[in-house]
Design brief:
The structure holds two protein chains of two kinds. By secondary structure, chain A is mainly α. In chain A, 80% of the residues lie in helices and 0% in strands. The longest helix of chain B is centred in the last third of the chain and has 23 residues, at 160-182. At the A-B interface, α1, α3 and α4 of A face α1, α2, α6, α7 and α9 of B.
Chain lengths: 80, 183
């Protein structure tokens, strides 16, 4: 038996495929009797699915740095 | 009504991903999207004195970006563009752009899906912007950019258990934020 806190942690790890088989078994055992965690687990899975489905993207960190540099330069220019 | 402040020093950290994602669903070319976002920030800086504080900074920047996107499409559809004869069998693998093939295909739902996806993307970024800055950053790195736990920990100088606590909080908040309209 594992406490809720650990169950949620395993659930989070599972979203990134970082949990072991044994952890997943323990999580599922917990979910059988714990309604709160069952709901969390449910929503967590949906969140993962939605983000995957939306294909959202982030700027590449290097690109962001360059943008920052350029904007900083423009800010200075404007101030002077 | 609160009077919104403007602070260009924070723009990149706070809004660049949001603006980028907004653009990418509308122009679908990464480099052009990056350029448009950059242009938006520079244009925003120039017209800062026109910012009256009625809308939030982000809304204001989006309104500039929208105009930039429209300009972009105007430019590529200018007379020069129209004069080109386009015969679009790009290569052997992809199908061409012939009129017959443009007739609506009931089995092809991509357009609708894409539209829904861009709305979903906006919604996700909207929810992300409600998180505390650190949570949003960690969540983005881990979930959207898919960095390894170790890499994020090194970059942000936090421990692994720290990271998981932040991820847990972020996921809880994101789920309840998206729940109403998307689950």
């Amino acid at each position: 038996m594992i406490p809720c806190e650990e169950a949620n942690h395993v659930c989070d790890k599972t979203q990134y495929k970082e949990s072991t088989l044994w952890e997943k078994i323990k999580l599922n055992l917990h979910l059988i009797y714990c309604k709160v965690c069952r709901e969390y687990s449910n929503n967590n899975g949906k969140l993962t699915k939605k983000i995957k489905q939306s294909k959202v993207e982030c700027l590449d960190p290097n690109c962001k740095k360059n943008m920052k540099k350029e904007l900083d330069r423009a800010i200075e220019e404007q101030a002077s | 009504m609160p009077n919104h402040q403007i602070n260009p020093n924070k723009w990149i950290d706070l809004y660049s991903d949001y603006l980028y994602n907004y653009t990418i669903t509308r122009v679908s070319d990464r480099e052009i999207a990056q350029d448009l976002v950059q242009d938006t920030f520079l244009a925003g800086l120039k017209s800062m004195k026109n910012f009256k504080g009625e809308a939030s900074e982000r809304t204001w920047l989006i309104s500039i970006l929208k105009r930039k996107i429209i300009d972009h499409y105007r430019k590529i559809n200018s007379n020069k563009g129209k004069a080109e004869v386009r015969i679009n069998y790009k290569d052997d693998e992809t199908e061409g752009d012939w009129l017959e093939e443009r007739v609506a295909d009931p089995f092809d739902k991509t357009a609708e899906d894409q539209m829904q996806n861009s709305e979903l993307g906006d919604a996700i970024y909207n929810c992300l912007s409600k998180l505390p800055e650190k949570q949003a950053e960690v969540f983005k790195m881990k979930t959207i950019q898919g960095f390894e736990t170790e890499v994020i920990c090194n970059e942000l100088n936090i421990t692994a258990s720290n990271l998981w606590v932040i991820i847990h909080r972020a996921r809880t908040a994101m789920a309840s934020c998206l729940k109403e309209n998307w689950f």
